[in-house]
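the two lines:
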Amino acid sequence: MIDALTKMDYMLGVMKRQREKLYQDCMNGDYDLMHGLREELPNVYRLSCERYRLMWIDAHWNVVHEFAEKRLSSEKDREALYLYFAKNFRPFIEPLNFSKENLSDFFFIMLRNEISGIEDMLNISNKHRHSMNELMNLQEIHWRKFEKKIAALSKERKNVEDE
Amino acid sequence: MAQNDLDKHYSSSQTVKTNLPDADALTVYYEQYAIILKKYESQVSYLYEKLEEIRKERISFIDEKIPQMREKLEEQQISEAHINDWLDTLRNDTMRSLSISETLLNSFYVSTLDEFKKELREKLSIGGEKS
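prediction for all of em together
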């Protein structure tokens, strides 16, 4: 059975890797990030930054999954790690829900979606694997929703310019 | 000194004497403490290293990484307003991530300390029963 120290060590590793990603993406001029930051239209700029940020938050699930698949052979241990991660990751994203930052309603909807996925994982026993899969799929779902929203805003702008 | 005072003094010094652990009990306590501490040594040094790592990372993020990222974003022709906005977001997310990591370590420290105390109490009560 996976011990408390190992679970904590894995989670610390995931958090560290994601912090490093924020820095590296900026230093390496990540295309999506730079494209969003160069955007001049305020709404599109805000949504592009929020999309990058939410993708970064969502990616924590994929990293913890990768850690678990590579290093833990037992399904029970993987579940124990996912539960530990879900319990301790919730306080990381929950403050954003009450943040004074200028975040869009769209971002809040996506965020609540993720918090509710975490709650499902913590509250519904024997459904951990299912909840984990759902949380891992969120990254793609969020990406697509943001894409649609940004495309709609850009189209709106183009129509205004054409008129 | 009045007889009453003398009686009080004598009885209170007796009380103090009886409350003090004797040398044998202290020796057993320190022996057990050292044995258990040895068992937890690797966990203690792990916690110390990780907390130190987080402290250094926080300092390096503010003093080194933020200026480096600002320079990079300026090179990329990002507007000053967007750079400031984005670096604020990065700072908030990074600091929250570091705080969560610290909370994990602190909770682990508290639970390890409880385990340590419990084990010490158990060992001492077993030792007491034997003697």
